[in-house]
């Protein structure tokens, strides 16, 4: 399990939480930009655990304002002399909007704390710009889960891939007769839909489409749709029959690599692979699976369909290894989140 430590005072600890929450509110709506959160605040001298929040902001959809500018616009003149916590180093380049670092200086912010350095060489350098222009700057390394896929995508120059599957304790995703609904319970399934709404695309193989006729939408417990909907992507050369996907719209690519390349080129930064077994093995063989969401149900089958349709390694020493990120309990089911060791 990855362990993080950070050194901050009580004010910064409270502001850090506010910034992470602001980023979480826009998670899934910002690609190709990261879902950054920002808070502008003043310290409360009468209460060391309390901050006076002036404004918060989250990154707007592509072409819109970055989180810092959203917060600065909301704060107005109250930003002068205030402090800011932002989950990603403020950018120092002009894209669709101007440099956030420059806007922070112009607004008169006295101190900036950022939680993750920007790995994009085009946009990096904001911290140095701020420091050079008289702003106190502090870097507090802190894990921000909504930023992990984007940071991974920037480091590798491709979409970040999460493999999601639900399995029995003995590793089967379906019984011998093909039945798989439902391995997990309602709470686990609702979590899956929440995560779908945070992804840019859901990828399945033609075998899954032919067998299950999935809609691949992100749905709330009452059946209504989340505001953020992933792109529906099918990999394989077989024809997709009339059904949910043809009514909703989908993209089809012959190979996994073709799909990943096309998604990256069109702004996707985080995709979820939901199977089936042939596609899942292909993604692992490509070496592009950065994270795993494994839902384990308290049942045993003894035989059935496995997570993959073939081996990835013939010995333990050559196995692909992941590290534990966290574990969560969804009623009787368990969600295990893992990340690749070299990420």
Automatic annotation (TrEMBL):
Residues that bind NADP(+): 166, 182, 208, 212, 237, 276-282
Catalytic activity of the protein: 5-amino-6-(5-phospho-D-ribitylamino)uracil + NADP(+) = 5-amino-6-(5-phospho-D-ribosylamino)uracil + NADPH + H(+); 2,5-diamino-6-hydroxy-4-(5-phosphoribosylamino)-pyrimidine + H2O + H(+) = 5-amino-6-(5-phospho-D-ribosylamino)uracil + NH4(+)
Task performed by this protein: Converts 2,5-diamino-6-(ribosylamino)-4(3h)-pyrimidinone 5'-phosphate into 5-amino-6-(ribosylamino)-2,4(1h,3h)-pyrimidinedione 5'-phosphate.
Pfam families associated with the record: dCMP_cyt_deam_1, RibD_C
Active site feature: 68 (proton donor)
EC number(s) on file: 3.5.4.26, 1.1.1.193
Name listed for the protein in its UniProt record: Riboflavin biosynthesis protein RibD
Entry cofactors: Zn(2+)
Organism of provenance: Corynebacterium aquatimens
Alphabetized UniProt keyword annotations: Hydrolase, Metal-binding, Multifunctional enzyme, NADP, Oxidoreductase, Riboflavin biosynthesis, Zinc
Single GO biological process annotation from the record: riboflavin biosynthetic process
Protein family: In the C-terminal section; belongs to the HTP reductase family.
């Amino acid at each position: 399990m990855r362990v993080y430590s950070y050194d901050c005072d009580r004010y910064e600890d409270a502001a850090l939480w506010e910034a992470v929450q602001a980023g979480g509110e826009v998670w899934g709506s910002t690609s190709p930009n990261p879902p950054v959160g920002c808070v502008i605040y003043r310290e409360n001298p009468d209460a060391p655990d309390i901050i006076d929040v002036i404004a918060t902001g989250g990154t707007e959809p592509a072409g819109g304002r970055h989180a810092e500018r959203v917060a600065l616009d909301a704060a107005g003149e109250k930003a002068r002399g205030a402090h800011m916590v932002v989950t990603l180093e403020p950018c120092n380049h002009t894209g669709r909007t101007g440099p956030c670092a420059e806007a922070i200086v112009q607004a008169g912010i006295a101190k900036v704390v950022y939680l993750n350095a920007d790995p994009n060489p085009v946009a990096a350098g904001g911290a140095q710009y701020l420091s050079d222009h008289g702003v106190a700057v502090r870097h507090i390394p802190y894990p921000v889960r909504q930023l992990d896929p984007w940071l991974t995508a920037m480091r590798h120059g491709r979409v970040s891939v999460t493999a999601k599957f639900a399995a029995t304790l003995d590793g089967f995703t379906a019984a011998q007769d093909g039945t798989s609904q439902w391995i997990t319970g309602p709470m686990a399934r609702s979590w899956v839909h929440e995560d779908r709404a945070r992804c840019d695309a859901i990828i399945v193989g033609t075998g899954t489409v032919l067998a299950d006729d999935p809609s691949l939408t992100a749905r709330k417990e009452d059946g209504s749709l989340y505001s953020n909907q992933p792109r529906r992507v099918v990999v394989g050369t077989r024809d997709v029959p009339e059904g949910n996907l043809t009514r909703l719209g989908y993209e089809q690519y012959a190979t996994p690599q073709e799909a990943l390349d096309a998604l990256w080129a069109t702004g996707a930064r985080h995709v979820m692979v939901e199977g089936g077994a042939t596609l899942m093995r292909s993604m692992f063989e490509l070496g592009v699976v950065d994270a795993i969401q494994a839902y384990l149900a308290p049942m045993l089958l003894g035989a059935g369909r496995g997570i993959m349709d073939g081996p990835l390694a013939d010995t333990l020493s050559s196995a692909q290894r992941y590290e534990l990120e966290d574990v969560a309990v969804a009623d009787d089911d368990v969600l295990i989140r893992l990340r690749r060791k070299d990420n």
